Amino acid sequence: MKRLFLLEDDLSLISGLSFAVKKQGYETDVARTILEADTLWANGKYDLAILDVSLPDGSGFDLCKKIRQTSKVPVMFLTAADEETDIIMGLDIGGDDYITKPFKLAVFLSRLNALLRRSENFNTDVTELKSSDISIKLLKGEVYKQGNLLALTASEYKLLCLFMENPDQVLSPEQILGKLWDCSENYVDNNSLTVYIRRLRTKIEDNPGEPKRIVTVRGMGYKWNTAD
Q1: How far, in Å, CA of 85 to CA of 196, rounded?
Q2: CATH topology for 128-224?
Q3: pLDDT tens across 57-82, in order?
Q4: Model-wide pTM > 0.85
Q5: Tens-digit pLDDT profile for residues 133-147
C-alpha cells in the first residue's frame, strides 16, 4: 500500500483529501505545521509528499529542501498562488508538480496517480547511475563525465536518466516523449526530441558526430549503448 505524506493546515481540505486518497487505496499521514512535519517525516517512510506552500510557521518549500537532501520521493505542491516565480521556485528546489487552489479533486487525483506511476518502478535505494565514464548523482541531480561536472538542462537530464535506467534497450520516440513532460502537461514533440538528443550528445559523447553512447536504431528509436 502506498503511503502519502500531507502537509496542510486547512482542516476541511485535509478531510477531503484524506478521504479521497483512502478510496484510492493509499494511507496518509498528516502534519499541519512545519514543526509537526519535521518530526513526522523523520520517523516515516513515504512514497509521495504533498506540501502546502503557506503554513503558520513557514513554507512547504523549506520542507522540500530538507527532503531533497536525503530523498528523491515525488513532491507535489499545493499553492494558492499561481505566480510564475513561485512555480519556478518550487520546481527548482526539487518539486515534481504543483496544483493551484482551488482545484478539482479529480484533477488532483489524476496528477497524484501520474506522479506515483512515474516513480513506482524506480528503486528508491539507488542514489547513483553509472555507465562507462558517465555517472549521475540522483540525489543531487548532477551528471559527471570522467569526474567533470556537466551542465545539463532539466530536459537533457531527464533524457539521460531515462537512457541510463534502460541500458541497451531500444526506446521508441513515443516512449521517450511520454517521459518528457512539463508542469503544464505540455509534451515535447519529435522535433524538440531530436534537438535534445543532439545537444545531449555534444555534452556526453567523445565525438558527437559519431555517437557511441546514444545510438540511433534506424526505424525504431534510440538506445543507450553500454558496449565498448
Answers
A1: 25
A2: Arc Repressor Mutant, subunit A (1.10.10)
A3: 999 999 999 988 888 788 999 988 77
A4: no
A5: 999 988 778 999 999
